[in-house]
Amino acid sequence: MEAQAQGLLETEPLQERDEDAVASADFSSMLSEEEKQELKAELVQLEDEITTLRQVLSAKERHLVEIKQKLGMNLMNELKQNFSKSWHDMQTTTAYKKTHETLSHAGQKATAAFSNVGTAISKKFGDMRNSPTFKSFEERVETTVTSLKTKVGGTNHSGGSFEEVLSSTAHASAQDSGSVPRRAEEELQC
User: Fold this and answer.
1) Could you report the per-residue pLDDT of 91-116, keeping only the tens digit for each?
2) Could you please report the per-residue DSSP string of 104-170?
3) DSSP states of 9-24 as a string?
């Protein structure tokens, strides 16, 4: 008898197959006419309550929208507020703080590394500029510039910086090319 009582009083939740069996079972034959009438009345009452609750919920949602409109709140503002709150919540998490700290530390190390590389490159350029090979190259460039100045600008040996020589060469070049289009215009007019 105890085994039968335990089977009737199971505390396990219904499994899907149990629900299917209950759904397909016909309990109406086990109910009296009076019980059927009571259950039908209860069913109607529950359906009416559900309908009323849906109407109340719908009215409250409309009222909510009206209040938000009066306050100037719209979907975009709500999204912004939700995003801001989510972003703030995320920033306050331990994982974010640790990640931020790690990346910040890595950024500082990278900055220091780039600074060291820049210093090393500057030092190498300085060493290279003081090397005999570069001095020889610099002298050859000066000789070439002086030669160009003599050919382009006459016998003026005043020296000057590399930029001045390039500028004077470009100016002389522009004057030569500027006279060609004028001649072509004169020929077209004739």
Assistant:
1) 888 888 888 888 888 888 888 888 88
2) HHHHHHHHHHHHHHHHHHHHHHHHHHTSHHHHHHHHHHHHHHHHHHHHHH-S------HHHHHHHHH
3) T--SPPPHHHHHHHHH
Cβ-contact 152, 164 below 8 angstroms = no
pTM: predicted TM-score of the whole model, two decimal places: 0.30
For residues 149-175, average pLDDT: 68
Assign 3-class secondary structure to 82-106.
HHHHHHHHHHCCHHHHHHHHHHHHH
Token pair in block for residue 183: 């001649």
pLDDT digits (tens, 9 = 90+) for 145-154: 888 888 776 6
Sign for the pseudo-dihedral over CA of 179, 181, 182, 183:
positive
